[in-house]
Design goal:
13 strands; 4-stranded parallel beta sheet; magnesium; disordered N terminus; 14 helices; cytoplasm; alpha/beta; GTP-binding; elongated; 6-stranded mixed beta sheet
C-alpha cells in the first residue's frame, strides 16, 4: 500500500453529467501517487448504474488499457462496489480498477509518518472497504467469484473483522486526541495563541508557515513542546502535509503557535472527512483560522473552494476565519481587486500576500494580532520574597511585561491571555498566603 508505483502505467477515466470533463486534478493525483499516466477516457452523460460509463465507452477503455499496456485504471469519480466489479470484468486480466478516493487513500498511506496519521489512513481504508466486503459477500452467495476483479478476493469473516478494527482504531485515536487536547490546554496556559492554516492542497500553506515562523526556532521551546517541527515542506505536489506541522512565531507582542494541516480537496465523501477529523481538530480548536487560497486560480474555482472550506469548517469550528489570498506575485493588482470584489460575500476583508516572495506578510501579522482574543491587563503587588522572583520570571516567560518595580514590595504590570492572567493571580495568592 505504501510503496510508490514508479513503473505502473495508468489510464485515467472521468464521467461528467454535463460540460467537458477536466482531468487535470486526477492526473496530478495519479502522478502524486507515482503512476505514469499513459491515456485517458472521458464521457459526458448520466451515470450508468452498472458500469458508471456507457457500455460502449467501457469497451473503448478496455482497448486503450490493452494498447497502452496499462496496469491500472483510475476513475475521477466515486465508483460503487458493483460498478468496480463490472468494469473489472471487461478489462484485461490483472488490471486494477480504483476510484479517486481509493487513489487518495493510497497517497495518504505513502505520506503517513506519525502513528496518528497512519491510524487515520487505516480507518479511512477500512471505511472504504466495508461496503465492498458486503458486496463481495453478496456476489459470493450468487456464486460470482472469479477473483471479484477490482474488488479483490473474498474472505467470509472479513466484514466482521473490519468492524472490529474500526472500533479499535477509534479507541486508539480517541486516546491520542485526549493527549492533544491536554497539550492545547497547556499551550494556552503557557501564554501561546493557537493559529491554524487551512485550505486546499497547493494553496501555499506550508510556504506561508515557513514565512510566518522564519525568525524563531522551535528548539528554543523544545522541552515544553517536543512534538513541534522545525520545518514544513514546501513543494509543488499534492498532500505533502498529511499530519500537522507546528512552529513558533512572534506576532507583535504575542507568542503564537502556527499549525499547518492536511489540505482540503474537492468532492471528499463524508466517511473520508470523518476519518481525518482528529487532524482537523487542530483547525477546529484554534484561536484563529487562516483560510489560504490561491488567488491565481479562476474566480469560480476559488468561490467553489471557499464554499466547501466554509462548509467543512463551520460544522465544528470555534474560531474566527481570515481569508488569505496567496500567490499575489503571479497576478496583477487589477486582477486581485476584481477577485476581492467578486469574493467579498465569502471572504470579507481578506489579506492578500505572496508567501513565496514575502509580500505583505507584515499586514497579515497585524491582522492576526487584531483577530486573536484580546489580552487582559493586570497589575500585581507581590511580597518581596525569594519565591516572588520565580513568579516574576514565570510572568516574563508567559506574558508581555510592561513594568516591574522592586521596593519593599514587587509591583508588576503586564498583558497576557486570560488563562495566563488567572494563573498569575493564583500564584500571587499563594505568595501572599505564604508570607502572611
Amino acid at each position: 500500500m505504501t510503496a510508490t508505483h514508479t513503473t505502473d502505467r495508468a489510464v485515467v477515466a472521468k464521467r461528467v453529467d454535463s460540460g467537458e470533463a477536466d482531468t487535470e486534478e486526477i492526473r496530478d493525483l495519479a502522478r502524486a501517487a507515482g503512476y505514469d499516466v499513459v491515456g485517458e477516457i472521458t464521457q459526458t452523460r448520466t451515470e450508468d448504474p452498472a458500469y458508471h460509463l456507457g457500455e460502449g465507452k467501457v469497451t473503448r477503455l478496455a482497448n486503450t488499457v490493452a494498447r497502452e499496456e496499462a496496469t491500472t485504471v483510475i476513475f475521477d469519480n466515486q465508483l460503487g462496489p458493483y460498478q468496480t466489479y463490472n468494469i473489472g470484468n471487461e478489462l484485461p486480466t490483472g488490471v486494477t480498477v480504483m476510484d479517486r478516493f481509493r487513489l487518495i487513500l493510497e497517497i495518504f498511506g505513502q505520506r503517513a509518518r506519525t502513528r496518528k496519521a497512519q491510524l487515520q489512513v487505516e480507518l479511512a481504508e477500512l471505511r472504504y472497504e466495508l461496503p465492498r466486503a458486503e458486496a463481495k459477500a453478496s456476489l459470493a452467495k450468487r456464486d460470482e467469484r472469479p477473483g471479484f476483479m477490482g474488488l479483490g478476493e473474498y474472505d467470509e469473516s472479513r466484514e466482521e473483522d473490519i468492524k472490529k478494527q474500526i472500533a479499535n482504531i477509534r479507541d486508539e485515536l480517541e486516546s491520542i486526541e485526549e493527549t492533544e487536547r491536554h497539550r492545547r490546554k497547556q499551550r494556552r496556559e503557557s501564554g501561546f495563541d493557537l493559529v491554524a492554516l487551512a485550505g486546499y492542497t497547493n494553496a501555499g500553506k506550508s510556504t506561508l508557515l515557513r514565512r510566518l515562523a522564519a525568525d524563531l526556532e522551535v528548539d528554543e521551546n523544545e522541552d515544553l513542546h517536543p512534538d513541534l517541527d522545525t520545518t514544513a515542506e514546501s513543494e509543488d505536489r499534492l498532500f505533502t502535509t498529511l499530519g500537522t506541522t507546528t512552529r513558533r512565531a512572534e506576532v507583535g507582542k504575542r507568542e503564537v503557535l502556527v499549525t499547518d494541516t492536511v489540505g482540503f480537496i474537492q468532492d471528499l465523501p463524508h466517511w473520508l472527512v470523518e476519518s481525518f477529523k482528529s487532524t482537523l481538530d487542530s483547525v477546529y480548536r484554534a484561536d484563529l483560522v487562516l483560510l489560504v487560497v490561491d488567488v491565481s486560480e479562476p474566480v469560480e474555482e476559488i468561490r467553489e473552494k471557499l464554499v466547501t472550506s466554509h462548509d467543512t469548517l463551520y460544522e465544528r469550528n470555534e474560531a474566527p476565519i481570515v481569508t488569505v489570498l496567496n500567490k499575489t506575485d503571479t497576478v496583477d493588482d487589477e486582477e486581485i481587486r476584481r477577485k476581492r470584489e467578486a469574493l467579498s460575500a465569502l471572504a470579507p476583508n481578506p489579506v492578500a500576500v505572496s508567501a513565496a516572495e514575502g509580500l505583505n506578510i507584515d499586514a497579515l501579522a497585524e491582522r492576526i494580532d487584531a483577530e486573536l482574543p484580546d489580552y487582559e491587563r493586570e497589575r500585581l503587588v507581590l511580597p518581596m520574597t525569594e519565591e516572588t522572583m520565580s513568579v516574576v520570571s514565570w510572568i516574563h516567560d508567559h506574558a508581555h511585561v510592561e513594568t516591574v518595580d522592586y521596593g519593599d514590595e514587587v509591583v508588576i504590570e503586564f498583558e497576557a491571555r486570560p488563562a495566563v492572567v488567572e494563573m498569575s493571580r493564583s500564584k500571587a495568592g499563594d505568595l501572599v498566603g505564604a508570607s502572611a
